[in-house]
Design a protein that fits this description.
With 373 residues, the chain is an alpha/beta fold. It is built from ten helices and 14 strands. The strands form two sheets. Strands 1, 2, 3, 4, 5, 6, 7 and 8 form an eight-stranded parallel sheet that branches. Strands 12-11-10-13-9-14 form a six-stranded antiparallel sheet. Helix 1 crosses helix 7. The model has no long low-confidence stretch (mean pLDDT 96). The chain binds guanosine-5'-diphosphate (GDP) and magnesium ion. The site of guanosine-5'-diphosphate has 21 residues, from helix 1 and strand 12.
Length: 373
C-alpha cells in the first residue's frame, strides 16, 4: 500500500508539534496504520521539537537546517527511511513563520515523485488566541501588524483548517471562531484540543479519508508583504550545560522558569516579542524525566508541558526562540538572561551550541558585500 503523507502548517506556537503527536497516537492506538513524524525546523541542530518528539511513543525523525520546502531530495530520502522502518502515515510540519509548502512540497512531490505518496489534506492549525489578530477586532497581541499577512496566508493555503486548543475557550467562543474561519477561508474547518484529545480522532479520520487536490493557490508567497513579515523574525538556538558549582542537587524546574522570566524581561526592554520560546532538558541516564515548556508571547504565562521529577547537580538545556527581534539583540539578551540565573543559582555555564540568525539576514553563509564606494 502507498504511504500517506501530510504537511502541517500554522503559526508559531499554534500546536503543530503537539497535534502531530496526538494525530500519530490516534492512528497507532486505533490500528489505522503506523504513524511517523518528521519534525522540521530551521537551524542546524539542537531543536526542541525534535528532542521532545523523540521522547514520545510515536516513531520520529528530524529534518533540520532549512524548511522542507527547500530540500526536496533530503525530504524524499527521510520519508523513504521512515517507510523502510515500517511507517505508513507520515506527518511533517514546517517551521511556522512561513507559507508556500503547498507549492514547494505537495506540487513538487506530484511533479518529481508522481504516484509515490498519497497526499493527505494540507493541514493548517489555528490558535484561538492568535487568530484574534485577523478577526474584525484586529486584536493587538504585541506582535507587529506584518504578522497578520502570515496568519491569513497560512489559513488560505490549507485544504483543512483545524481550530486547536478548544480546551481554552467556552463553547460559545468556539462557535464564534468556527463561524469566522468558515466564512473567511475556502477550506473545511474542524475543532480539537491536541492537549486533551477532544476531537482528535475525528480530525484524524478526516485526514485519512480525504486527499489533497494539490492545486496551486495564490497566497502571496514571495510578495512584499511576505518579505516584510519574514524580515522581522529571528531564530535563536542554543544548548548550554548548567552545573551547580558545589555539585549540590537543584530543582532545575525553578532555574528554567526563572530563565523564561529573564528572557521575557529582556525582550520587553528591547521592544521585541517571542511568538514561541521553548526549552527542553532531560535526564541523561533515563530520558523519561523531562522538562519541556513553551512561552507563546511575552504577555502570556509559560506553559509547562513536562516537569523534572528529580533534582540534578548539572543538566543540559536546549533553548529555542522564534522571536520578533534583531538576531544579535536576541543573542545578547539571552546571554544576559543566562548570566542572571547562573548567578542566582551558582551555576557554571558551558555553551555547546549557539546560533542566531534573522530570517532574511545577510551574512549567514559565505561571501562578502562589495563596498558601495
Ligand atoms: N491548552 C492547550 N495547549 C496546547 C494545545 N496544543 C498545544 N498546546 C500548547 O501550546 C504550546 C505550543 O505547542 P507546539 O505544539 O509546540 O506548537 P508549534 O510551535 O505549532 O509546534 C505548547 O506549550 C503546547 O503544550 C491544546 O490543544 N490546548
Ligand atoms: Mg513545533
Amino acid at each position: 500500500m502507498k504511504a500517506k503523507y501530510m504537511v502541517t502548517s500554522g503559526f508559531l506556537g499554534s500546536g503543530k508539534t503537539t497535534s502531530m503527536i496526538a494525530i500519530g497516537r490516534s492512528i497507532d492506538r486505533r490500528g489505522l496504520g503506523k504513524a511517523a513524524i518528521l519534525a522540521d525546523d530551521l537551524g542546524a541542530a539542537n531543536i526542541v521539537d525534535a528532542e521532545y518528539t523523540a521522547t514520545t511513543d510515536v516513531m520520529c525523525q528530524s529534518i533540520s537546517g532549512n524548511c522542507i520546502c527547500y530540500q526536496h531530495e533530503n525530504l524524499v530520502d527521510k520519508l523513504h527511511q521512515l517507510i523502510a522502518a515500517g511507517a505508513s502515515v507520515l506527518l511533517s510540519d514546517i517551521p511556522g513563520c512561513g507559507i508556500g509548502a503547498l507549492d514547494n512540497v505537495y506540487l513538487q512531490l506530484e511533479e518529481r515523485e508522481p504516484g509515490e505518496f498519497e497526499l493527505m489534506p494540507f493541514l493548517c492549525i489555528a490558535d484561538p488566541e492568535r487568530i484574534r489578530m485577523i478577526m474584525p477586532e484586529q486584536a493587538d497581541l504585541s506582535l507587529p501588524g506584518e504578522m497578520r499577512f502570515l496568519l491569513d496566508a497560512q489559513l488560505n493555503e490549507a485544504d483543512l483548517i483545524v481550530l486547536n486548543k478548544i480546551d481554552t475557550v467556552t463553547p460559545e467562543r468556539r462557535e464564534e471562531l468556527l463561524a469566522f474561519l468558515r466564512g473567511r477561508y475556502p477550506a473545511p474547518v474542524l475543532a480539537m484540543s491536541a492537549l486533551t484529545g477532544e476531537g482528535v480522532d475525528a480530525v484524524t479520520d478526516y485526514l485519512l479519508s480525504h486527499r489533497s487536490p494539490a492545486v496551486h493557490r495564490e497566497i502571496g508567497y514571495g510578495s512584499a508583504e511576505f518579505i516584510a513579515a519574514e524580515q522581522l523574525m529571528c531564530w535563536y538556538n542554543r544548548r548550554v550545560f548548567l552545573e551547580q558549582r558545589e555539585d549540590k542537587p537543584l530543582d532545575f524546574n525553578r532555574v528554567f522558569l526563572d530563565l523564561f522570566e529573564e528572557l521575557r524581561l529582556g525582550l520587553r526592554k528591547a521592544g521585541g516579542n517571542v511568538p514561541h520560546l521553548k526549552m527542553f532538558a532531560s535526564d541523561a541516564a533515563a530520558p523519561t524525566d523531562i522538562f519541556k515548556a513553551s512561552l507563546t508571547g511575552i504577555d502570556y504565562e509559560v506553559t509547562v508541558d513536562s516537569r523534572l521529577e528529580k533534582s540534578y547537580s548539572a543538566i543540559s538545556l536546549v533553548l529555542n526562540a522564534r522571536a520578533v527581534a534583531d538576531s544579535q539583540v536576541m543573542a545578547a539578551l539571552a546571554d544576559d538572561a543566562i548570566d542572571a540565573v547562573a548567578q542566582k543559582y551558582a551555576l557554571k555555564v558551558k555553551t555547546f551550541f549557539m546560533e542566531s540568525f534573522g530570517m532574511m539576514e545577510e551574512g549567514k553563509g559565505n561571501g562578502g558585500r562589495a563596498s558601495k564606494y
